[in-house]
Amino acid sequence: MHVAIAGNxxxxxxxxxxxxxxxxGWEVLPEAADxxxxxxxxxxxxxxxxxxxxxxxxxxxxxxxxxxSQRTQTLVQDRSIYEDAxxxxxxxxxxxxxxDRDYSTYLQLFESIMGLVKPPDLLVYLKADLSKLMERIxxxxxxxxKNIDPAYLASLNGHYxxxxxxxxxxxxxxxxxxxxxxxxxxxxxxxxxxxIDRMLS
Length: 201
Prior knowledge:
By secondary structure, this protein is an alpha/beta fold. The protein has helices at residues 13-24, 39-44, 46-70, 81-94, 100-114, 130-140, 150-166, 186-200; strands at 2-7, 27-29, 75-78, 122-127, 172-176.
């Protein structure tokens, strides 16, 4: 089985994926944020590095999709492949940070890959307001995120809302992450587990 955790930067995807893996005995497929060699350059000069950073993420996520298709145990994926195109690349293009030529090339690559992609058995979307995202980004203290523009995050949130409203590829669980602290409050994590159990049953 394949469970994907979706959500904006700082929504708490990685933490939740690790906690769910420990709770259920699943295996985590992490996002390649810490290994993406373009990410630091991207945050310093988005127009220059937008295409490279997105192609790297897309390739990493596609390798995960191929791995998922070959495995028998349940895997929980930190961010879905759909977010790469429908949220991040789209936002970069509409914001003028990725030019038409690069965006067209990116979409051709994405659409070719989609022919080999099976949707997750459950998509869990962590919905978080801008203030919550900024708070979590500051707490985790990643160097390359310290100057992230709040307007960039707000724009991503808008694209997330549009994408989730039209998502029809399979079961979807939307979790309002704003009032939750599932790291410090066991009852908050148990609430999420109950929702996932309900969806998977």
